Structures are given as C-alpha cells and as structure tokens.
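Bug report (template v2)

What were you trying to do?
Predict the complex of my protein with shikimate-3-phosphate.

What happened?
Run completed; filing so the output is reviewed.

Input:
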Amino acid sequence: MILIGFMGAGKSSVGRALSEMLGWTFEDLDERIERREGRTAPEIFRESGESEFRRAEHEALRELFGELSGGAEKVVALGGGAFAQSHNVRLIEAANVSTVFLDADLEELWRRCREQRRTERPLLGSLESFRNLYEARRPHYMKALLRQETGGKTIEEIAAEVVQALGLDQDLDRDPSRIRGKRSEKQ
Ligand code: S3P
C-alpha cells in the first residue's frame, strides 16, 4: 500500500498506525533517499536543488519496488512531490499496489505544517506558494485508488477507515491467515 498526499497530510503517522494495525512493515521513502544519498532531504535540496532530489527519489522508488516480492506486506509513505512525477506514477501502476490519497483542506494542511516547525520542509514557503503547489498537485493525487479524508480525525480513525475501505478488515476478521492471499490483490 502506498500513501500519497501533500505536506502535512499525515502520510508517515498514518502509515505507522496502518502498519501496526495490519502487522505489515512501514517504510518512509524519504528515509530511504536519505540513507542512499548520505544526506537529509533538506540538504539535498539546499546543496543540489530539487531536480537532484527528484532523481534520488525516483531511484529510491525503483530500488524499493525491486525489493518488493509479489504481495509484500508493506505500507510505504511517499514524500509530497513523488506522485506528481509521471515516471514515478508509471512505476507504481506497474507494481499494481493500492494507492491511498490522504486528503485535507489547504488551511488544515498549512496549520499542521506550521505546528510541526521542527520538521524542515524545503518547499513549505509562503501560504501563497503552498496553495499554488497544492492546487497543481491535487489532480495527480486524485488518481489514487482511494481518497481518504483526514480532516478532524485522529490518526487511528484514519488508519481504521483505510483498512475498512480497502476491505482489509474483513480479511482480518474472517481468517487472519487469508491476508497473505488477499494481499497480492490489495496491498
Ligand atoms: C516534498 C515533501 C517532503 C519531502 C521533500 C519534498 C514535496 O515530504 O519529500 O521535502 O515535494 O512536497 P513530506 O510530504 O513528508 O513533507
């Protein structure tokens, strides 16, 4: 399962909650990028620019899919820009994994990002540039299999609704051992 959405959508925190609920592993793609490049994402932006970050992001995604076997039980949180890049979308579609767009309105996303001031976000900018980027990316996010509203909900509520919407709760209720078989369709 791949979680997409704008900065502040809650991809990492909802991803962790989902992985706990399902007993799947969690991965934050930005962390893979940082490991591979030996620099933090903000450092890559600062020292080498956004295009270099996008190259590293695409390579990290390719590596990740290279490692995923058939129906690996994994929840992956992408950075906010990854799903707006068509070559990444092609890679994800070819891998046939479920994509979940964590949605919220602009004001809420902005508020969450402002509250998480300790998280350095190279593309946060002003409210106006934040809005422009959000409006440019939203049509890409809307191509996800599932759009999950997150406004006014707790992390656990959001994760539970995603599990239910993807029918993964039925797998858990009926017979946990069936998850492996179902997983290859719904992952
Ligand atoms: C980015 C969002 C960041 C990170 C990078 C670029 C973006 O991730 O990938 O700074 O283009 O929106 P988060 O969405 O987790 O903040």
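What did the reviewer find?
The chain has ten helices and five strands. The pocket of shikimate-3-phosphate is lined by residues 7, 11, 30, 41, 79-81, 121-123 (CB under 6 Å).
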